[in-house]
Design goal:
The protein has 251 residues and is an alpha/beta fold. The protein has a single domain, classed as 3-Layer(aba) Sandwich (Rossmann fold). Helices cover 46% and strands 24% of the residues. β8 and β9 form a beta hairpin. The chain is globular, with a radius of gyration of 18 Å.
């Protein structure tokens, strides 16, 4: 009897067994967790804060609402969500990586927000929440690291309340070829160097650059969201398409 072929998925430019990707991604973020926020500022020139602020401006959340931030890492979006929903509301910061989640929890405690947020170690593909639990779900720069992105989108759609919104903030495809050339040179020369000098891990940031190139472009991700059952889907290109914010609703 012929052996069944091993199912593979992307890990940067490499194809690895599907069951192995989560372990490899965990290793990347275990390595860079302590310097993650500093590296984000250096890599983007602080622009990641503006991209996240734009996403938060579109949540539509009111006091008392319920929000979930998936792959929330060190808590940038969760902090904004907590301010929006207030102490009457409820925010969950979820991440598959325990070290990133710990750093996020410590940041929120330092800001006096710990009592407003719960922390859950969770896989985006199999969210441990009841159907219709949240008014808004966000995921910022995390979807590209998920093994089965379609399953994750379906899981996010499931936990939204009717009328609830999903916001996916992620690196995407630049709109101009000239920008793509500059972006490639920066990604594959400067980022690994920064990773080595600042975070002590050039390979981790080489993976992150490669994972961006393997991530679905704007239109492909839009169709994936629709396939997950989300409606009213559209996106906003930011910084010439280097980043895109996709939005969809559960009606």
């Amino acid at each position: 009897m012929a052996e069944r072929p091993i199912e593979t998925t992307d890990f940067g430019y490499a194809d690895v067994p599907r069951q192995d990707k989560a372990r490899r991604v965990r290793g990347v973020f275990d390595s860079v967790a302590e310097r993650y926020d500093l590296m984000n500022d250096l890599m983007s020139g602080g622009a990641h804060r503006l991209w996240k602020r734009f996403a938060l401006a579109l949540t539509g959340l009111r006091r008392g609402a319920r929000a979930l931030d998936i792959a929330g890492g060190t808590g940038d979006l969760a902090i904004g969500l907590a301010h929006q929903v207030g102490r009457q509301g409820y925010v969950v910061l979820a991440d598959i990586n325990s070290r990133m989640l710990q750093i996020g929890r410590d940041r929120l405690i330092d800001r006096g927000l710990s009592g407003m947020v719960d922390y859950v170690q969770a896989d985006a593909q199999h969210l441990p929440f009841a159907d219709g639990s949240f008014d808004c779900v966000t995921i910022g720069f995390g979807l590209r690291n998920v093994t089965d992105k379609q399953a994750a989108l379906s899981s996010m759609q499931r936990v939204l309340k009717p009328g609830g919104q999903l916001l996916v903030l992620e690196f995407s495809k630049p709109l101009m070829s000239s920008m793509s050339r500059i972006y490639d040179a920066y990604s594959f020369r400067v980022l690994p160097w920064l990773g080595r000098v600042v975070a002590g891990d050039a390979d981790a940031y080489r993976y992150l650059a490669e994972s961006i190139r393997r991530h679905p472009d704007q239109e492909t991700l839009l169709q994936m969201m629709r396939s997950a059952g989300l409606e009213g889907c559209h996106y906003h290109n930011l910084t010439g398409g280097l980043v895109a914010l996709h939005r969809g609703y559960r009606y």
